[in-house]
UniProtKB/TrEMBL annotation:
Keywords: Coiled coil
Pfam families per the UniProt record, alphabetical: DUF5688 (PF18941)
Protein name: Transcriptional regulator
Origin superkingdom: Bacteria
Upper taxonomic lineage: Bacteria, Bacillati, Bacillota, Clostridia, Lachnospirales
Residue ranges the record marks as coiled coil: 299-326
Organism encoding this protein: Blautia caecimuris
């Protein structure tokens, strides 16, 4: 049985045998691609003629199939099939290449992507990035969006310079484009019911709920396509709308890059417990590249300010201790001042008594 490197080389050396004649002169390359959260995948690129945008076929899952007993040549055939299937999309994207340098044509195609800042330092190095507490936002141009997925390119610093626009402009236009993709706040119970019985869950974003009538208060924030919708969390007016809808402060559970869960702060949930749940779910149920973070956030209903829930509790505890010390110090200070005033009065009396005694003695 071949090891991982041998398998990848075998695919590279033999895939042309399964491809049409137009691929015969292709310069095939293997490359390591860094994805979200430090995940590194091995991809193969197979150009077709002179096309400028070449799709990448990832080999990691195929190697796992090979390890599990699939014939190696069947795996090579699968790579060829995936490359042929991607050709139509590659040709579509290739047609739009000249327009990529035209910002006015691209700004409506922008999308905000969100990730954990600490998990993605290297990956973000050459990207246009804005920081939002525990999160970093980077940006993409979605060349194609449909039911099958999204074809996109990242907005790098060099592309921004070609456009001749600022980071602030990219951020503002990307957030507007995201709003145009639809913002949805949906009851999780309705989502489950729609999966079983069909139907469309109601968008609650502009509602004002009576939380006493909601049996299991848990909500999902995402976009209409449910792709890369977690970034809507970064928009202050959306956070404010959520607070108005719930009528309370709330916790934000970073469930994936596609959505976040919203829990009203009703006194039931404890931050350490929520953090532990998020970490367990990430480890057992969410693919590494789709994990958003393991840091629960807290959002204030009135100010729409979002901050790390654990650090917020520590900050409030520190402020509480400082306030107690100030109160204690204040009382102590007043007592000391009163004692000092009494002592001063006694000192004023002493010389007079002593002068009388001295006169009498004389």
């Amino acid at each position: 049985m071949m090891n991982r490197k041998e398998f990848y080389e075998y695919v590279k050396d033999n895939v042309k045998e399964y491809l049409p004649e137009s691929y015969r002169d292709a310069e095939i390359k293997l490359q390591e691609v860094e994805k979200n959260n430090g995940l590194k995948l091995t991809g193969i690129t197979i150009p077709n003629g002179n096309q400028r945008i070449v799709p990448t076929v990832y080999l990691d899952s195929l190697y796992q199939e090979y390890i599990n007993g699939k014939d190696v040549d069947s795996c090579v055939g699968d790579v060829a099939d995936m490359r042929i299937e991607a050709q139509g999309k590659a040709e579509f994207c290739d047609m739009g290449v000249p327009d990529i340098l035209d910002y006015e044509k691209m700004k409506d195609k922008l999308q905000v992507r969100i990730c954990d800042k600490e998990w993605n330092t290297d990956r973000l190095a050459d990207k246009v990035v804005t920081e939002h507490g525990d999160f970093a936002a980077y940006y993409a141009v979605n060349l194609e969006e449909n039911g099958e997925g999204i074809s996109s390119i990242p907005v790098t610093i060099s592309l921004m310079n070609e456009w001749g626009v600022s980071v602030e402009q990219i951020q503002a236009d990307a957030m507007m484009a995201d709003r145009n993709r639809g913002v949805q706040l949906v009851d999780m119970t309705q989502i489950v019911e729609s999966m079983i019985f069909g139907g469309t869950p109601k968008n609650l974003l502009n509602e004002k709920l009576d939380m006493e009538t909601v049996e299991n208060p848990m909500f999902c924030l995402t976009n209409e396509s449910k792709m890369n919708g977690a970034s809507l969390l970064l928009q202050e007016d959306i956070r404010k709308q959520i607070g108005e809808c719930l009528g309370s402060d709330y916790f934000v559970i970073p469930s994936s890059v596609h959505e976040v869960l919203i829990l009203p702060d009703n006194g039931i949930f404890q931050v350490p417990e929520l953090n532990a749940i998020v970490q367990e779910v990430n480890e057992t149920q969410v693919e590494r590249q789709e994990q958003l973070s393991d840091k629960v956030q807290f959002c204030d209903k009135k100010t729409a300010v979002m901050e790390n829930a654990e650090r917020r509790e520590a900050r409030l505890e520190k402020e509480k201790v400082a306030e107690k010390a100030e109160v204690k110090g204040g009382i102590h200070g007043r007592l000391e001042k009163a004692k000092a005033e009494i002592k001063a009065k006694e000192v004023d009396k002493v010389p007079k008594n002593k002068s009388k005694d001295l006169a009498a003695a004389l």
